[in-house]
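in:
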């Protein structure tokens, strides 16, 4: 029987040298063939860093033959040594991780399964080039379902797309609902069979793993838990290819009732043998699970909704439903990027996967690189203690300015340094190469290298990489408004422009704020310079002979029929043009910009620049207009052209000169505004301050 062949081959391979359960592999955390090694020539070129890297256990990317270091898997099961806040985050009972791409969602799941509780890891997407983690068994089950492989004789076929028009015959609403429900129920029965057999295959692999553990004699539960997690992340380490996919193929034709009985038998047998129970069901890349067969399933209970789309559920629903009906899971974690949160939450709340009342629906931030100290610590972990401190102040300032934000940014820098070499010149060259690719303007030093290992596709939001379509037009309009408001006011008014800031998290623009306690509203922030420079390039670039999005946005504002909107449009135009004229290395003469009525004064030929108010980083409780903190402002946004005051006193305070001082981080930080938008009692729409050079 194929199941026995797979099981026996896995047990044999797992216990051999380089096997996933061999004592040396368990001690290292990875097979030696999966360990990354620095280039030999670094022993002479970077001797201290070379010796440090040789003491580390950095794995390579699964299924890659290019000796690529994998920072996502580094310190699996002990990531608190890298990120001290991970322990606190793991204690938060979230069931939906929906922060932006690169925020640390997948790492959170890996660490949870490797440290907190045993469980199953499913992913809707496996791509050897971009997401080489997990088994393809779930994707294969969905393909078979669409190919009618789980349809019983005499049963209606699986319908991949249920539409209102399919069953609409002009009859009553009740009759239409009944026909929708008939198709949904038939689809659900077929999906139940597919996912029951999928779970059976997983249980059989876990049973084989436990048999191998029993033969190994290993009793350290922590290292075994990490090994089970790693096997699900990199199934090829089984020695039989993707063991989960292969086992699923072996049992895909088993009858559903038989599969259910086998699952129950396996759970009871493993429990009696005192093997760890599987408590966690983790589902990654769930955005595909919300888009695949998005209208094929309905609510489990009678819905009060009358709108068809509000009643539909995606394929994620039956997967979760069957897992909790058949398994012994106590908790569910769902993760995805560009994910429809409502679709996920509706799918979850309409299943038996009810969470504890203390569980939160949506996780806020999973941490960020938000301080110079934190960034330097991470660099020192990989390149040796004191590495970051050995860099010049200007290089450290560049790192801090560009690397603040989501975890992926600093990972890109570390990865590139592990490929190119950890020299200070390489640090600066990598940063400028990254900025050049994101901005579309070459800011590299003359003759500076082009780092082919730096791919920006995972940094630049996809919405600005592709063409505008009817489907994304509304999001693009909202995005243009966000950018204009940042440019002019450093703020974003969610109520005026967009019903859901979370949509901007889904498309990779904003991020959720830091983790919170209590029942506070979720806060969305936009303060990452790498993202903003890419957005600005997209906003200001004009096709040959055409106009940029910025130009079109300003023209629409001026031409608006509503006087108040038109007024705002003119204000934006004036503020932007003055900023472009008067901020730069060589400010213009006044008479090159303005036409004087009557005789020109003597100072008309003076070169003039806009006054920039310079504020020192202060304590969060300091009484400063706008409450501006350090570079990585907890205020939540980035630099802008203006500051809007709320009171008369605040207006006067904001325009008072302040001298530049050194902040607590030992770096000069500039907080400047070209314009002050005063309190309404002050009259003008904004003030501009000029300084004669």
């Amino acid at each position: 029987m194929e199941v026995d062949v797979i099981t026996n081959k896995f047990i044999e391979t797992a216990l051999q040298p380089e096997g996933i359960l061999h004592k040396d592999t368990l001690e290292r955390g990875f097979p030696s063939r999966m360990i990354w090694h620095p280039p030999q020539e670094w022993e002479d070129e970077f001797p201290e860093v070379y010796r440090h890297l040789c003491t580390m256990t950095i794995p390579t990317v699964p299924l890659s033959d290019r000796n690529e270091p994998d920072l996502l898997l580094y310190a699996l099961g002990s990531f608190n040594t890298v990120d001290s806040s991970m322990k606190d985050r793991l204690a938060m009972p979230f069931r939906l991780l929906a922060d932006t791409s690169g925020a640390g969602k997948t790492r959170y799941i890996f660490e949870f399964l490797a440290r907190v509780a045993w469980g199953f890891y499913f992913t809707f997407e496996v791509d050897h080039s971009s997401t080489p983690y997990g088994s393809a068994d779930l994707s294969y089950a969905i393909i078979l379902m669409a190919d009618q492989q789980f349809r019983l004789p005499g049963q209606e076929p699986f319908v991949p797309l249920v539409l209102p028009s399919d069953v609409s015959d002009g009859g009553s609403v009740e009759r239409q609902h009944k026909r929708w429900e008939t198709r949904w129920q038939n689809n659900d029965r077929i999906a139940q069979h597919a996912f029951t057999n999928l779970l059976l295959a997983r249980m059989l692999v876990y049973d084989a793993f436990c048999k191998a553990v029993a033969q190994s004699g290993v009793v350290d539960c922590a290292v075994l838990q990490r090994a089970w997690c790693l096997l699900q992340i990199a199934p090829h380490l089984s020695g039989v290819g993707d063991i989960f996919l292969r086992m699923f193929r072996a049992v895909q034709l088993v009858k559903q009732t038989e599969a259910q009985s086998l699952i129950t038998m396996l759970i009871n047998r493993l429990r009696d043998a005192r093997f760890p129970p599987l408590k966690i069901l983790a589902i990654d890349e769930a955005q595909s699970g919300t888009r695949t067969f998005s209208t094929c399933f309905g609510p489990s209970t009678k819905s009060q909704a009358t709108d068809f789309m509000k009643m539909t559920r995606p394929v994620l629903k039956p997967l979760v439903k069957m897992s909790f009906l058949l398994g012994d899971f106590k908790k569910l974690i769902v993760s995805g990027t560009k994910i429809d949160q409502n679709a996920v939450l509706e799918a979850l709340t309409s299943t038996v996967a009810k969470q504890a009342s203390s569980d939160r629906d949506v996780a806020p931030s999973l941490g960020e690189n938000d301080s110079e100290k934190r960034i330097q610590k991470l660099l020192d972990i990989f390149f040796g203690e004191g590495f970051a401190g050995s860099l010049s102040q200007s290089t450290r300032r560049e790192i801090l300015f560009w690397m603040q934000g989501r975890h992926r940014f600093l990972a890109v820098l570390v990865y590139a340094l592990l490929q190119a070499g950890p020299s200070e010149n390489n640090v600066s060259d990598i940063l400028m190469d990254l900025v050049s690719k994101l901005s579309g303007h070459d800011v590299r030093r003359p003759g500076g290298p082009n780092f082919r290992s730096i791919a920006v596709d995972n940094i630049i939001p996809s919405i600005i990489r592709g063409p505008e379509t009817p489907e994304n037009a509304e999001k693009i309009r909202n995005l243009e408004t966000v950018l204009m408001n940042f440019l002019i006011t450093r703020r974003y008014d969610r109520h005026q422009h967009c019903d859901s800031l979370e949509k901007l998290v889904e498309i990779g623009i904003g991020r959720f704020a830091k983790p919170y306690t209590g029942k506070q509203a979720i806060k969305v922030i936009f303060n990452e310079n790498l993202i903003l420079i890419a957005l600005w390039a997209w906003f200001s670039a004009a096709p040959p002979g055409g106009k940029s999005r910025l130009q079109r946005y300003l023209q629409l504002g001026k031409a608006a029929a509503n006087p108040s909107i038109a007024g705002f449009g003119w204000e934006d135009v004036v503020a932007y043009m003055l900023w472009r004229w008067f901020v730069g290395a060589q400010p213009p003469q006044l008479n090159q910009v303005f036409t004087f009525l009557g005789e020109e004064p003597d100072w008309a030929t003076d070169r003039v620049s806009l006054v920039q108010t310079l504020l020192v980083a202060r304590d969060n409780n300091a009484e400063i207009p706008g409450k501006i903190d350090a570079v990585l402002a907890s205020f939540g946004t980035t630099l802008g052209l203006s500051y809007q005051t709320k009171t008369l006193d605040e207006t006067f305070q904001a325009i008072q000169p302040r001298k530049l001082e050194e902040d607590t981080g030992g770096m000069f930080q500039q907080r400047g505004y070209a314009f002050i938008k005063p309190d309404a009692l002050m009259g003008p729409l904004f003030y501009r301050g000029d300084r004669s050079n």
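note: The longest strand covers residues 119-123.
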